[in-house]
């Protein structure tokens, strides 16, 4: 690695008082998160750019090195789409969820628990930490059941049950495997695949898994990396902080729409289950997680109880 560090601001040339000030900025944050569990949801879109992906791996490794316990939950929607295209399999979505039949759930498991899981694990390992890739089936970690979805027919007003196939929702998260890995100094990297009755494989939305894992761990933070700076108001300005009640009002008055609805709902779910704060932040921004955790102003929108 080439050494490109600019030394002009090096503390060595400064007075003891100035040096103490520089450290004083960093230390409270390191102390605040020492030993804390931070769940990071890393979406499939955020993995696209090589530079950013390498930086993500380095940031997660750095968190571990400064005494934080990061737990990564990844997505892989675009990567599943690419594989389905190669296999000439069509896929359809209902409310942002992939309708998943028996043939498709095999592809989903192969891509999420295979290619993508090993890619994310590799990013962190190459940065000098030790990451271990698992999915919800390992250690029966994520017990899932078939997701029940209904839709009101606008003409008849009759509620219809939609069949999304093997799309699941977490029923129970057994955190023992996660604790065993973090306790041994390793970083769990979790693919959003769950196990149901009779060993059935379920495809679960990655935001949902991240929320459920953060809730079950009582994580200090859930960081949801996405493609906007956070929750934006009607004038497209970032809202730095929201309560659960603010989120509910934002959905009701139409400020929060589309893919942001399930995202904030999963954050609320995590917070209700015991996560101290869930943050929606921009995964396209270099060092997004570090800026949230280690600066006074934070980064993105934090949702707290
Ligand atoms: N109030 C809002 N603030 C920010 N984004 C919003 C808001 N309402 C809707 N959105 C939309 O939600 C999108 C994020 O959801 P989604 O595309 O599903 O994210 P991801 O692919 O990262 O899971 C944003 O790109 C934006 O178009
Ligand atoms: C049920 C369902 O839709 N599952 C998702 C799982 C991956 C995911 O959520 O990935 P992103 O975070 O990259 O969108 C899917 O099949 O695409």
Please explain how this structure is put together.
The protein has 305 residues and is of the alpha/beta class. The chain contains 9 helices and 16 strands. An 8-stranded mixed β-sheet has the order 5-10-2-1-13-15-16-14, sandwiched between helices. Strands 3-4 form a two-stranded antiparallel sheet. A two-stranded antiparallel sheet has the order 6-9. The N and C termini lie far apart (44 Å).
Considering the chains and any ligands shown, give keywords for the structure:
binds N-acetyl-L-glutamyl 5-phosphate; binds adenosine-5'-diphosphate; 23% strand; alpha/beta; two-stranded antiparallel ribbon; 16 strands; Carbamate kinase; 9 helices; eight-stranded mixed β-sheet
Précis, in short:
This protein has 305 residues and is α/β, with parallel strands linked by helices. It has one domain (34-304): Carbamate kinase (3-Layer(aba) Sandwich). The chain is 39% helix and 23% strand.
Shape: globular
Write out the distinct hetero groups bound to the structure. adenosine-5'-diphosphate, N-acetyl-L-glutamyl 5-phosphate
| Number of extended strands | 16
Rg measurement, Å: 20 Å
Provide the low-confidence segments as ranges. none
Structurally, how many domains make up the residues?
A: 1
Residue fraction in strands: 15-25%
Biggest sheet strand order reads 5-10-2-1-13-15-16-14
**CATH top level class name:** Alpha Beta
Task: Write the element-wise H/E pattern from the N-terminal end onward.
Answer: HEHEHEEHEEEEEHEEEHEEHHEHE
Mean pLDDT: 93
Count of helix runs: 9
CATH topology: Carbamate kinase
Function: Catalyzes the ATP-dependent phosphorylation of N-acetyl-L-glutamate.
Subcellular location: Cytoplasm
Keywords: Amino-acid biosynthesis, Arginine biosynthesis, ATP-binding, Cytoplasm, Kinase, Nucleotide-binding, Transferase
Family: Belongs to the acetylglutamate kinase family. ArgB subfamily.
């Amino acid at each position: 690695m080439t050494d490109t560090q600019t030394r002009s601001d090096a503390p060595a040339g400064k007075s003891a008082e100035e040096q103490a000030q520089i450290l004083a900025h960093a230390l409270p944050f390191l102390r605040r998160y020492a030993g804390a569990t931070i769940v990071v949801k890393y979406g499939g879109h955020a993995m696209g750019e090589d530079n950013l992906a390498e930086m993500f791996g380095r940031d997660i490794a750095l968190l571990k090195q400064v005494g934080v316990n990061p737990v990564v939950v990844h997505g892989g929607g675009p990567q599943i789409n690419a594989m389905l295209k190669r296999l000439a399999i069509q896929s359809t979505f209902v409310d942002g969820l992939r309708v998943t039949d028996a043939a498709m759930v095999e592809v989903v498991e192969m891509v999420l628990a295979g290619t993508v899981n090993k890619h994310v694990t590799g990013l962190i390992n190459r940065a000098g930490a030790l990451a271990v890739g698992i999915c919800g089936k390992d250690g029966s970690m994520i017990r899932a059941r078939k997701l029940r979805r209904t839709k009101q027919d606008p003409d008849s007003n009759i509620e219809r049950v939609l069949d999304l196939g093997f799309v699941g929702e977490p029923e129970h998260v057994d955190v023992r495997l996660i604790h065993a890995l973090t306790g041994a100094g390793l970083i769990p990297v979790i693919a959003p695949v769950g196990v149901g009755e009779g060993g059935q494989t379920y495809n679960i939305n990655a935001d949902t898994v991240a929320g459920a894992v953060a809730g079950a761990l009582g994580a200090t933070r859930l960081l949801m990396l996405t493609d906007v700076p956070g929750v934006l108001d009607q004038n497209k300005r970032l809202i730095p902080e929201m309560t659960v009640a603010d989120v509910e009002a934002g959905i009701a008055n139409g400020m929060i729409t589309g893919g942001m609805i399930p995202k904030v709902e999963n954050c609320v779910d995590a917070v209700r289950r015991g996560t101290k704060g869930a943050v929606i932040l921009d995964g396209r921004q270099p060092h997004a997680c570090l800026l949230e955790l280690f600066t006074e102003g934070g980064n993105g929108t934090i949702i707290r109880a």
